[in-house]
Amino acid sequence: MIKKQKHNKNMTDITNKETAEQLRRYIESIEANEAEKKELTERMAEIYAEAKAVGFDVATIKQIIKIRKIDKEKLLEAEYLLETYLEALGGK
Fold this sequence. Notes:
78% of the residues lie in helices and 0% in strands. It is mainly α. It has 2 domains: 7-56; 57-92. The radius of gyration is 24 Å and the shape is elongated. The relative contact order is 0.04.
């Protein structure tokens, strides 16, 4: 449901052909990117399924990808904190 917005200067500007064309380009660009994102998501799901089919653990693969995205210093700090907390709890 589209909410009715209060009339303001920006709404008046939309009637301007140039502004309307600019808005149309933004919307079409976003729609194109959404379609690409969907295709990439589908391809990633296929890759995970392939990896699982040959015996790899998908959860572990996802964890590795997550770790590889983290800055090395931040990763070392997180690992240190994890070890410290586990030791404090008598877990290590």
